[in-house]
Write a structure and sequence with these properties.
80% of the residues lie in helices and 0% in strands. It has 266 residues and is mainly α. Helix 1 packs across helix 11 and helix 3 runs antiparallel to helix 8.
């Protein structure tokens, strides 16, 4: 009994330490985004001046806009391509599926610097001028493998007879895909899209090597800053708030739908 209680206390303490290790730096960043002074260690009072400074900084706003445009396009394209590829692979022969999945794992296992230089050399060799297009293409290329890896496990859990039954009942292959398969794997698709979005939002190395002059993402802007200021904390706080809101909505909407469906059932 005592051993069991001690084990529970130790597990709880260990969990609290892990959560503090993960979230304390974020909390520290958010706190000092409201600091009145310029110090990053001494909180001198509450103020919104760093948020005002952020919105007045044209270069920072442009970098945020560029990052969001690239992340949204890369997420949409990689989610569609990755989902279709995963569905195709789930129906392929085992040997082909194994080979393709091993190839798919290469970009995930490779260091970012290898992927970045490889893509840069590819664009240069085909005489493709580095700029916004190459930046988006490079983000799509490293996001697709993560979508495939997220969707594939869910596809393995599906019953193939359901899709075949839909085809037998007169549904076209496209209708069977959109009305039967995709609704069942939708949570995995959303998870893959969120991972792709966060990977694109966070990237620095691939963006640095595959973009042209005058184009900055958030990470590139922070890297090029001559002097750190707390407006970066304000920007980071808004990103954390936006990501938190997205996660809440992604989890809350299905729960509301399930609750509504249960109420409608006789």
């Amino acid at each position: 009994m005592k051993k069991s209680r001690a084990s529970r206390v130790f597990s709880s303490a260990y969990l609290i330490l892990i959560l503090l290790f993960i979230y304390l730096p974020i909390g520290y960043l958010v706190l000092f985004s409201f600091n009145e002074g310029k110090s990053m260690t001494n909180f001198s009072g509450f103020s919104l001046k760093w948020y005002e400074s952020m919105f007045q900084n044209r270069t920072m706003i442009e970098s945020i806009t560029t990052t969001l445009i690239v992340a949204v396009i890369a997420t949409v394209v990689s989610t569609v391509v990755g989902t279709v590829a995963a569905i195709g692979l789930s129906k392929a022969k085992r040997i082909i599926r194994s080979i393709v999945m091993e190839v798919n794992n290469l970009p995930v296992m490779n260091p970012d610097i290898v992927t970045a230089i490889g893509l840069m050399l590819l664009f240069i060799s085909v005489k493709f001028q580095l700029g916004m297009v190459t930046l988006i293409l490079s983000h799509i290329s490293f996001c697709i493998p993560y979508v495939i890896l997220t969707v594939m496990p869910k596809l393995r859990q599906l019953d193939d007879n359901v899709a075949e039954a839909a085809l037998d009942l007169g549904a076209t292959p496209f209708k069977a895909l959109t009305k039967v398969i995709i609704p069942q794997i939708l949570p995995a698709i959303i998870s893959g899209a969120l991972i792709a979005f966060s990977m694109s939002l966070d990237d620095f190395v691939v963006s640095y090597f595959n973009t042209g002059a005058g184009i900055n993402t958030i990470s590139m802007y922070v890297y090029s800053m001559k002097r750190y200021n707390l407006s970066v904390n304000a920007m980071s706080t808004l990103i954390v708030a936006a990501v938190t809101l997205i996660l809440i909505l992604v989890n809350l909407i299905p729960w509301i739908k399930d609750k509504k469906t249960k109420k409608e059932e006789p």
